[in-house]
Each structure stands twice: as C-alpha cells, then as structure tokens.
C-alpha cells in the first residue's frame, strides 16, 4: 500500500510522539519519520533507540518538506513552535497536534499556519503516567479515541486523511468542536488530574501520617491517585492554564457536590451516601462494556479465580 | 504442619471473606472453614462454588466452637453480629474482623466479647472494585499489608497467632493503634474514595456532556476514578459514618489545597502549579519501589516495548 503520508515530522519526542513513531512503524503507513526535541539529551536518546528515521537539530529542519507535521509539545509551547516552522511548511501539508486542550491551541497555532497548508488539530485520548522518548509503545492508541477538531474552513480531504492515519495507528476517531472538546476533557481528564494531584499533595503535607506510611498503605485506593499525579508536570501546568474556564467550572461543581457529601457525613445521613455511591457504580459498568477498561479486578493486578 | 487455627468462621461472605477462604485453602493453614452470610442467595452461591467446608444458617451456628471468628460484614453491622455470636464463643477463641475503620469497630464489638475470648481487630489493606462471594481470589492479600490493632489487654500470644495466620495468607503484617489507623486510612483510602465518588457523580450530573461521552472518553484519567467509585456502596457508607472525624479533617485539608490550586489556575500562576505537580511525582516513585504497585505503564494495560 502507498503511505498515507510520505514524510511525517514529530515536533517533541515525549510519550505521545514516541508512541506514534512506534505505531507508524507497526502500521507501515508513512514513508519517513523525522523528529525533533528541544533537549539534546532527548534527541540523543531518540537516536540511540532508533525512534525516528532522522532526528533533526531544529523544528524547522524536521518540518521542512513534511506532508504531516504533528506538534507534540506542551500546549503552552505550541504557538512558538508554529511560528518557527511556518516559513518552511510545504504547500498542501497538514499541521496537526496532540494537545489536551483545543481552543487555546487553535488560537495559538492558527494565525501562523500559511495559506495552502491544512490545519487539523487533534487529540489522542491515550497516555500513561510515564514521559519521555523511552516511554512510548506502539499499542498506546489501540482502541482509544483520537478526537479531531477541524477548524473553520478545514479541508475535508485533509481531515479524512488524518482520520485514516489515526485509525492506522490503532485509534478510533471522532470529530468534535473545540469548545465541546475542552469541556468534555475538563470532566474526563483535567479536573480528575487536578484532584489527584491535590490529594497526593495533602498526603505528603500531613505531618502526623508519615510519607512512608502513605507509601506502604497506598494499595487501599490512594495508589490510583498517585499514578495520575505522576503525570508530566509541565504538560499539566499548561493544560490548566489554557483550559482555565472549563476546568474552573467543573471544579466549582465538584466542590459543591463534595460539600453536600461532607454535610451528609457530618449529619450521619447514611441514605444520602448509599444512594450516591450506588448511582456511580453504573458508570463503571458502562466504561467496561464500552471496551475502555478491563473488568479484571484491580486492573488485572490480582488474578481472577 | 498443624493448622494455625483448627476451625475458622467467616461471618459475611463478600470479597474479603471469599478471598480469605481461597487463601486459607492455598495455605492449608486451617482445619475447617465455616461460613455464614445474611442473604440466602449468597449462602447458596458459597455452597455452589465450594467456598467453605460448611455454610451455616446463622452467625451463631458458624461461630460456635470456632478457634477464630472473623467478622467480614460492613462496619455498621459488626456490633449486631458480635452480640449474636457472643453466647456461643469458645473460651480461648479469637474474634477478629476486617473492617476499614477500627475505633468504631472496637467500640461496637468490644463490649460483647466475653471474658476468656481474645479480641484482635485487624484490617487487610486489599480489595478490588468487585464484591460478593464470587469476587474472591487466593492472591488478593499477597504482598499487601494487614494491620493488626490490638486493644487494651490483648493477649500477646493471640495477636502473634493472628499475625502468623495473615502471613500464611500472603500478607505482610504491622501493628497500629486504632486512632492512628483511622487517620492513616482516612488519607490513603477513605478520602480518596469519597473524592472519586464525587467526581463520578459530577460527570453523571453534567447535562452538556452526555454519559456516553463520559464513558467513551474515560481513558483520559476518569476511568481510574470510576473503578474506585464502583466499590460496595453499603461498605463505604459505613466507613464514612464511622470514621467521620478523621475523614472530615482530611477533607478539610483537601479543599484548602484544592482552593489554593484553583486560585493559581484563575490567576495563571504556572510556577505554583508546576512546583506542586513535580512534588507529587516523588510519592509515586516511592510506592512502586515499595512493591505496592507495578511500574508497568497504565497498570499493565499497555504493553511495554
């Protein structure tokens, strides 16, 4: 089969980009993979592990002549990178990204995209708590959603080509507008991350419970929070700074509900608590049925009888 | 080897009790396992799957003549069960439990324990989001902590025997006093559960994001919350009602910190966010190093390259 894109440039070589590189190799759907990372150490690692066909010394060098350029840097850095590569973009090329926030990326990158170049923002909903060029693996996107967020005037053929590309990497695709994307992600990802970070910080601060106790006894629920709270700090800083409105809205609702449950605990209102906890069970069932998680107990940590 | 306990009675046949039953069979460390559950359906299931040597029709029937009686019912039901079995307890027997809260259990059960019977409360820190007699598996306690909380005047030999029993089931053991236990668990388990329940409830309530969207896009962080929030509603209702003080204290600290982060988002204070997120990473490393979780990305959901 002929490649979906002849030359693909990955700008930023962290967890998502390195997984894309391995997934492209597995799919055999691109001609050449070019990569660039700001840190010399990351570029060196990428060369060592054979992550890309060519590791370049600048974003512009990687992007030049590419048919698809994917910005895989923290959301706050996207605008700068777009400005840098704009002059070398090939007419007819597609610029995309993998940022967790879409409105801010569109505002930051959009103005730099030259006429004749397609801009198709995207967001693969996949990740782990690990980061860096060694953390990627080809299966990361398998059966996960990649959301495409076409902008005003996006070329339909360019969008469809990018959808095909993501499906070849194992993902499912869906289109969404930027505002809705940012709200959905505030619910399913951004606010949960902030809450997990907070809870881990509280545990770390509490003088009467030692860190070693927190670590030892984490299996009781806390360790799932620590995994989330081990995610890349710069990436997440940028997510909250750039999806401020939606995150603050969901946080407001969260504290409202938390206060209602706190009040039920204080008043000893067992019926309220039990009703609430019963309702939340159904959502879990939905997620397992939708194939978005395993029903093996404890994520398969404990074998089934 | 001679059995650690000749006859063991499990009162309540949910996830923990059924895992104990399989773990005892694996260890071969008890003579006979007797079980009782309040629901006829659960007793029937237990018989079908061969969970116990004898499934009894009342708690007293199961406890009579047992060398170890383990209360595996929700914390709020412990006192009633203790009252029921008190008259039939064998002199020299040990009564223990697996409740997630210790002060309230000691207050509820202690007064019913006859002179000459040892009362050694315990709490195995292990579980999954599943419940009921079919959810147990022998490996649940392997390399997990079981906390023993001896009460005033506990017999040292009885405590040591129960420690040996738990180690034979695969667990590590540690002793702790009840107040400290309840505080540690409020941090590592109870508050994280309440927060997860709340976040899942918020997602379910939000009209502009559909449940199906929440389910579809859950892989971005939310699904770890849904697993926690799928835990047994009655058990968790009782935990919050009986560990009220410590939970409310930790919740207070949590909302304080959350408001500080919320303010940093509102003010665009990226340095504050990045510092906070960097600090929480270290705790995760400690947990993986302590063998309390796997460092396989995404709990082993995604294979490592």
Automatic annotation (TrEMBL), chains A, B:
Task: Output the InterPro entries linked to this UniProt entry.
Answer: 6-PGluconate_DH-like_C_sf, NAD(P)-bd_dom_sf, PDH_C, PDH_N, Preph/Arog_dehydrog, Prephen_DH
Q: In which pathway does it act?
A: Amino-acid biosynthesis; L-tyrosine biosynthesis; (4-hydroxyphenyl)pyruvate from prephenate (NAD(+) route): step 1/1
Q: Which GO terms describe its molecular function?
A: NAD+ binding; prephenate dehydrogenase (NAD+) activity; prephenate dehydrogenase (NADP+) activity
Keyword annotations from UniProtKB, A to Z: Amino-acid biosynthesis, Aromatic amino acid biosynthesis, NAD, Oxidoreductase, Tyrosine biosynthesis
EC numbers = 1.3.1.12
Keyword NAD belongs to the record: yes
Q: Which class of enzymes does this protein belong to?
A: oxidoreductase
Instruction: Tell me which family the UniProt entry assigns to this protein.
Output: Belongs to the prephenate/arogenate dehydrogenase family.
Protein name, please? prephenate dehydrogenase
């Amino acid at each position: 089969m002929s490649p979906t894109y002849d030359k693909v440039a990955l700008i930023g070589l962290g967890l998502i980009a390195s997984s894309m590189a391995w997934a492209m190799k597995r799919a055999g759907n691109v001609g050449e993979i070019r990569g660039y990372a700001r840190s010399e150490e990351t570029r060196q690692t990428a060369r060592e592990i054979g992550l890309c066909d060519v590791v370049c010394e600048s974003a512009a060098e990687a992007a030049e002549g590419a048919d698809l350029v994917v910005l895989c840097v923290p959301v706050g850095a996207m605008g700068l990178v777009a400005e840098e590569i704009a002059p070398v973009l090939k007419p007819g090329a597609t610029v995309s990204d993998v940022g967790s926030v879409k409105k801010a990326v569109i505002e930051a990158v959009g103005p730099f995209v030259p006429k004749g170049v397609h801009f198709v923002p995207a967001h693969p909903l996949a990740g782990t708590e690990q980061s860096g060029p060694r953390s990627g693996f080809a299966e990361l996107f398998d059966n996960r959603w990649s959301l495409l967020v076409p902008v005003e005037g996006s070329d339909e053929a360019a969008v469809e080509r990018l959808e095909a590309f993501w499906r070849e990497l194992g993902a499912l695709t869906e289109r969404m507008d930027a505002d809705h994307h940012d709200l959905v992600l505030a619910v399913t990802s951004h606010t949960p991350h902030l809450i997990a970070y907070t809870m881990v910080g509280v545990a770390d601060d509490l003088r009467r419970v030692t860190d070693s106790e927190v670590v030892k006894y984490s299996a009781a629920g806390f360790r799932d929070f620590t995994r989330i709270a081990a995610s890349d700090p710069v990436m997440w800083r940028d997510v909250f700074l750039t999806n401020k409105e939606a995150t603050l809205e969901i946080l407001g609702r969260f504290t409202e509900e938390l206060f209602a449950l706190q009040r039920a605990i204080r008043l000893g209102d067992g019926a309220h608590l039990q009703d609430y906890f019963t309702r939340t069970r159904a959502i879990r069932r939905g997620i397992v049925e939708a194939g978005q998680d395993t029903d093996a107990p404890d994520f398969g940590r404990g074998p089934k009888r």
